[in-house]
Amino acid sequence: MCRPTHFDVTYAINPWMDPAKPVDTDLAVAQWERLHALYGELGHRVDLIDPLPGLPDMVYAANGATVVDGRVLGARFRNTERAAEGPAYLEWFRARGFETRDPEYVNEGEGDLLTTASYVLAGRGFRSVADGHAEAQEFFGRPVVGLELVDPRFYHLDTALAVLDGDEIMYNPEAFSAGSRAVLRRLFPDALLADRADAEVFGLNAISDGLHVVLPEAAVGLASRLRERGFRPIGMDLSELLKGGGSVKCCTLEIRATA
Question: What are the alphabetically sorted keywords of the record (predicted)?
Fold first, then answer.
């Protein structure tokens, strides 16, 4: 995770960002600190990367890299405003002895690369590109399934789909092309489908440890359906960070150390 010390909205690279709207950085830090504390309360270890001045979106750690089986594929951002984040995150992992790869093609980390038990699901259409998907497959040695995003509000895969446990996922069908919806139905016939109301409050930008699902507190319908499936949803208020187009998952880069 990365503390939002320098968080602000000074440019617009997704539909959620509006530089004309004031940002309360202190409130963003307080909301982030509650999420950070919650992970500790749930028994998870959290490592921190130092925030760098001039990189207001560095708080969205999920975009910084993808880690599978202890191997780290760095991020290459489409937008110049975030370009320096990729090298900063990759250097953090190199300094701690991880095997790393500096990417050749655009991929925006776990924003667009989500790992299930059987696949790496890879979003494209707004940020990451198909060549970046192929690069991930060669590096990780896992089958990568490309999914086309069609709604600019859900510009990253992690705003439209979340991995719950193993090969169990939840997603918003309206965020995907017809062909990608067909692929998801085939691969995940028992997936939990989010409705428009929960998707629009970023309910799918969630983190699950297989039991607890941390998600935006406004996604009340999704929380109810998760309980019906035996999960324990925990709602969080990250409304200030949503002004930059991110929530729980965006703030959290998962480090998968082993196969």
Answer: Transferase
Dihedral sign from CA coordinates of 35, 40, 44, 49: positive
Cβ–Cβ under 8 Å, residues 113 and 107: yes
pLDDT in tens, 177-219: 999 999 999 999 999 999 999 999 999 999 999 999 999 999 9
Whether residue 126 is predicted with pLDDT greater than 60 in this model: the reply is yes
The class (CATH top level) of 25-242 is: alpha beta
Domain definitions of the chain by residue range? 25-242
Q: Which residues are catalytic?
A: 156, 250
What pLDDT does residue 259 have?
46
Looking at the whole model, is its pTM more than 0.85?
yes
